Amino acid sequence: MKVGIGYDNQKNSISLGKKVANNAIKNGKIERPAFVIAFCSGQVDHEEYFKGLQIVVGNQVPIIGGSAIGIITNESLSYEGYTAGVAIIESETIQFRVASADGLNKNEKLAGQKLAKKLSDSIDGRILLIFYDSIKNPPTETTPPVINASSLLIQGIEETLKSDVPIIGGGVIGDYEFSHTKQFCGSYVDNQSVVGTLLGGDLNPHFRIMHGCIPKDGIYHTITKIEGSVLYEVDGKSVVNMIDNQYGNKDWRSQVPVKRLTIGVNYGEKFGNLKEKYFLNRLITGVLPNGEGIVL
């Protein structure tokens, strides 16, 4: 297997796609591209960027990925301008099966079921890599952004996928304003979609969960009122007032998303040693205008 990484930052989106692809092919000495993982900032014209990639690798090579706030490679790091990055993989021993499903903003679980159904009768998978649209609704002047629920998406996948494989990946976000995003779905560009790649063949997957969050004080709390992605009460009390007390002021309410605080669930031993991989954390994207709840 050979892997090439490419990076560039320029305004012309087609040229950007061609440049990062050519850089990846050169750096990895790629002769026969088999699979592409690509990202670009929210400012980039995603459709034109995608065309640029296809000009270089061909329209038969699946491309997955989508919007990103920034790009990090071994040689480059950028969160500004028209930044983009790509990984091009060449392999005769690894199998790639790509599928996608739309309607994520209407029903996350159903979208997961649709994706898994398309992949269930394919290769003997070793790991499933997914990328999905994080933004159900972008923020307005009076409301915080609403995020597509990854838990429901994964539930739909796990209920339908015949092979019991680990699922890795994440939601795509194109800027700090939580604007609409785009996804690269193999052969086309879409939004409100999830794209998945089932990898099989001569492959031994290794993965690790790292989110950088630690428990604030080790005290457990109980969610007592929640509707969808809006959390109203914890321990029978207003969660907004509780966070006011934690910060000692109300300044945090203007943060989108809220910094240095998440809502987490520990799936490991309750009072055992801290193991990052057992904590599931939800970003607080903002506060309701009336201060009645927070949006996760």
Outline the structure in words:
This protein is of the alpha+beta class and 296 residues long. The protein folds into 3 domains: 92 residues, 60s Ribosomal Protein L30, Chain: A, CATH 3.30.1330; 109 residues, 60s Ribosomal Protein L30, Chain: A (2-Layer Sandwich); 73 residues, no CATH class. The chain is built from 5 helices and 21 strands. It has a 6-stranded mixed sheet. Strand 4 and strand 5 form a beta hairpin. Helix 1 packs parallel to helix 2. It starts with a strand and ends with a strand. The model has no long low-confidence stretch (mean pLDDT 92).
Broad structural category: alpha+beta
Radius of gyration: 20 Å
Task: Supply the number of structural domains.
Answer: 3
Count of DSSP helices?
5
- Which of globular, elongated, flat, extended, rod-shaped describes the shape? globular
Assembly state here?
A: single chain
Give the strand order of the largest sheet, numbering strands 1, 2, ... along the chain: 1-6-2-3-12-13
Given as residue ranges, the uncertain stretches (5+ residues, pLDDT < 50) are none
Mean pLDDT: 92
Helix content: 10-25%
First and last CA, distance: 40 Å
CATH architecture identity of the largest domain: 2-Layer Sandwich
Main beta sheet strand tally, sense and closure = 6 strands, mixed
Series of H and E elements: EHEHEEEEEHEEEHEEEEEEEHEEEE
Q: Work out the strand percent.
A: 25-35%
Q: Which CATH class of the largest domain is shown? A: Alpha Beta
- What's the count of strands? 21
Query: What fold name goes in the CATH topology slot of the largest domain?
Result: 60s Ribosomal Protein L30, Chain: A
